[in-house]
Amino acid sequence: MISRSAHSAAVARRFLAAGALAAAVAGAAAGCSADGGAEGTGGGMTSKEATAQAAAQSGAEATGEIARPTSSSGASTTSSSETPTPTPTEVPYEGTGEWEYALEASAPQGDGAPFAIAVRVEKGLPVEIDDTADFVMATLRDERGWQDLDGVAFELVSDESQADALVSVASPQTTDQICSGLTTNGYTSCREGNQVALNANRWLGATEDFDDLTVYRQYVINHEVGHALGHAHEYCPAPGSPAPLMQQQTLGLQGCTVNPWPSVA
Ligand SMILES: [Zn+2]
């Protein structure tokens, strides 16, 4: 398991060193979708901005891999004492490919257009399904979230075929498989089609920029579901500003401060 993970990380590092910038500059493939969303640049980024952004992201992404290897130590969670709710549990790179679904339904609340969410966790991960579904729904329904901004009302459904977005907490390998059209490198999460895949290592360990695991989880849910709602990436407007929710905060903050809510920035 470890050797496989180490191999993957090495592959990822080689890719990051050699290809990430070129791929990002070439188009939306890496620079604008590594953290999710297959929608490309969204029309808001010029080629010059894309180039600058790609450079920034390439560096940040490489730093993230180096700073938080998910392979050699095995332990995906932080060794820092800054995270208040660390889960010092090893998450294997390979998943079981089997799923546990949240089976309780919860009707939409409010007048917005219903937007159905299904939640599942890959079996074998140290992640409890009902707690996860509760957290996902509480985050999406938070008054600082998308509901009022986008005129939607999130509901929880147990049947994934009825879901507008299927949220999966998955092993790195399975996340990469779900996100196969994107560049997740066993590290980031993504939205592709109606799938939102959350890398379990980030779910349990966040990144070094986030010292609060709850805030990171709120960020990644709102960011990836934001893609499912049609939102494209944004960029840090100025150092010291709250990062736009749709900034790829997993890959670095570009001088901004962490922010998990679309109503803030
Ligand atoms: Zn994204």
Mean pLDDT: 76
Count of distinct strands: 6
**Rounded to an integer, what's the Rg over CA atoms?**
17 Å
Shape: globular
Proportion of beta-strand residues: 5-15%
Instruction: Extract low-pLDDT stretches.
Output: 1-36, 38-84
Largest sheet: 6 strands, mixed
The molecules bound to the chains, other than polymers, are: zinc ion
Query: Residue share in helices?
Result: 25-40%
Q: How many domains, as an integer?
A: 1
Q: How are helices and strands ordered from N to C?
A: HHHEEHHEEHEEHH
The tally of helices reads: 8
First-last Cα distance: 40 Å
* SS-derived structural category: alpha/beta
List keywords for this structure.
single chain, 265 residues, alpha/beta, 6-stranded mixed beta sheet, 8 helices, 12% strand, disordered N terminus, binds zinc ion, metallopeptidase activity, DUF3152 domain-containing protein
Q: Mind sketching the topology for me?
A:
Elements: H1 2-18, H2 20-26, H3 47-67, E1 99-101, E2 113-122, H4 129-141, H5 146-150, E3 152-156, E4 165-170, H6 172-178, E5 190-192, E6 195-199, H7 200-205, H8 213-228
Parallel strand pairs: 2-3, 2-4, 4-6
Antiparallel strand pairs: 1-2, 5-6
Task: Provide a short characterization of the protein structure.
Residues 1-22 form the signal peptide. Helix content is 35%, strand content 12%. It is of the alpha/beta class.
What this model shows, in words?
GO terms for molecular function: metallopeptidase activity. This protein has 265 residues and is of the alpha/beta class. The protein has one domain. 35% of the residues lie in helices and 12% in strands. Strands 1, 2, 3, 4, 5 and 6 form a six-stranded mixed sheet that branches. Helix 4 crosses helix 8. Bound molecules: zinc ion. Zinc ion (ZN) binds next to helix 8. The site of zinc ion (ZN) has 7 residues, from helix 8.
